Amino acid sequence: MLPPRPPPILAAVLQTAALLAGCHGPAFDARAPAAAAPAGNFTDLPVIERIPPAWLEPSRDPFRLGVGDKLEIEILEVAGTRQVCTVMPDGLIYFNLLHGQKIEGLTLGESRALLESELTTFYRTPQIGLILRGIASQRVWVMGRVNTPGLYPLTQPTTVVEAIARAGGLFSSRFSGTTEELADLRHSFFVRDGRFVPVDFSRLLREGDMSQNIYLRNGDYIFLPSALSKQIYVLGAVNVPRAIGFMDQVTLLSAIANARDLRPDALADRVLIVRGSLTKPRVAVVDYSAILHGRAPDVVLEPSDIVWVPDSAWYDLKEYAKLIVGTFVRTVAANEGARAAVKDPATVGIGINVGK
Q1: What is the residue range of 155's domain?
Q2: How far is CA 8 from the centre of its chain?
Q3: Is residue 65 part of a domain?
Q4: Domain end call among 227, 244, 271
Q5: Residue 195's beta-bridge partner residues?
Q6: 126 and 141 share a domain?
Q7: pLDDT digits (tens, 9 = 90+) for 200-253
Q8: Which residues have CB under 8 Å from 175's CB, separation 6+?
Q9: Which of 164, 169, 183, 294 has the lowest tally of Cβ within 10 angstroms?
Q10: Is residue 8 part of a domain?
Q11: Residue 163's domain is classified under what CATH number?
Q12: What Rg do the C-alpha atoms of the chain give, in angstroms?
């Protein structure tokens, strides 16, 4: 026989902060039953940002050489001059009788013209044959619950779905005959140039919504966290920002205590709890000071909640949520990248726009 359900949590009023327009979000009522909690306690925010339509098309810019790229170079009609050269860490390439030539950032056509010009010191009218043989300068990260996480070279126009497929697809449980996917798509994220890009992985991978399938660029980062990992993230003006393992029950008090308490500059009366999808988060604003001093009951947290303690006043809830989500994904990406073992996957054919 199942034990009786515990009584509802005691009363607390946790107000949302004023928005720029001067309106207020719904109050956080800790007495609300669990089924009504999302609607009654949190402000639902719309999609934080839109994906630029141009990102859904492959780049038309010509490929530019970078460190680690390999070129096969030959002076046409001059025997014995064929050579495979690598762009060195200083951006230089060494070929034939030439001293190092700076070709990092150049297209193939610009590199050919430079080499032909410099070789006129040694040859009358040199003509260069130049072929791109390998790319190591343009890479993307595919991390988390995929079968082969790692760093992958961009050798051809590649979308998010293609990159995940190249990493072996989503990791699935192989026990008891189940193929349950173990990636948490609601909290998966995409980072470009240090900024969170609101790719909705649930819509993309579950519903086949190609409006989320952007083309990748050098340095892009895809992370699909484990659905089995139950953590709460405490960030902002705490002494030790960190992820806290979720046990039977974690409250706001215990989570902040695990982060070694608030910093002196923390605004304890405007602590935010971010819950749900990263692209469409729900946010509650909590008076932590009232809880700490016994004027309000504690708040029970859920796995994957983000607790953010501000150190300065804020007014626009949507804009501040963007800042929180952006900081969260950059923090997780940096930590996961630091733990990753970097190794080059198998070389594939080149199908990029090399230009002239």
Answers
A1: 137-227
A2: 37
A3: no
A4: 227
A5: 192
A6: no
A7: 999 999 999 999 999 999 999 999 998 887 889 999 999 999 988 887 789 999
A8: none
A9: 294
A10: no
A11: 3.10.560.10
A12: 26
Distances (CA, A) of 155 to 132, 133, 136, 333, 349: 11, 10, 9, 23, 7
User: Are 309 and 223 part of one and the same domain?
Assistant: no
Which burial class, exposed, middle or buried, applies to 264 when counting CB atoms under 10 A from its CB (0-12, 13-18, 19+)? Answer: exposed
Does residue 73 contact residue 115 with C-beta atoms inside 8 Å? yes
User: Are residues 241 and 294 both part of a single domain?
Assistant: yes
Burial class (CB in 10 A: 0-12, 13-18, 19+), 89: exposed
Per-residue pLDDT averaged across 132-136, rounded? Answer: 92
Last residue within a domain, chosen from 134, 162, 182: 134
Distance CA(345)–CA(356), nearest Å, equals: 28
Is 158 part of any domain? yes
Let me know whether 156 and 246 are in one domain. no
Q: Which two tokens stand for residue 266?
A: 């923390």
Domain count for the chain? 3
Tokens representing 91?
């951006």
Whose tokens are 């692209």? That residue is 279
- If we measure between CA atoms, which residue out of 213, 175, 168 comes closest to residue 53? 213
User: Do 326 and 248 sit in the same domain of this protein?
Assistant: yes
pTM of model > 0.90? no
Q: Which of 349, 347, 351, 343 is nearest to 141 (CA)?
A: 343
197 and 290 both lie in a single domain = no
Whether 356 maps to a domain, the answer reads: no
Q: Are residues 263 and 206 in the same domain?
A: no
CA pair distance 270, 277, nearest whole angstrom: 21
Q: Tokens in use for 293?
A: 């001093």
pLDDT at 40 over 50: no
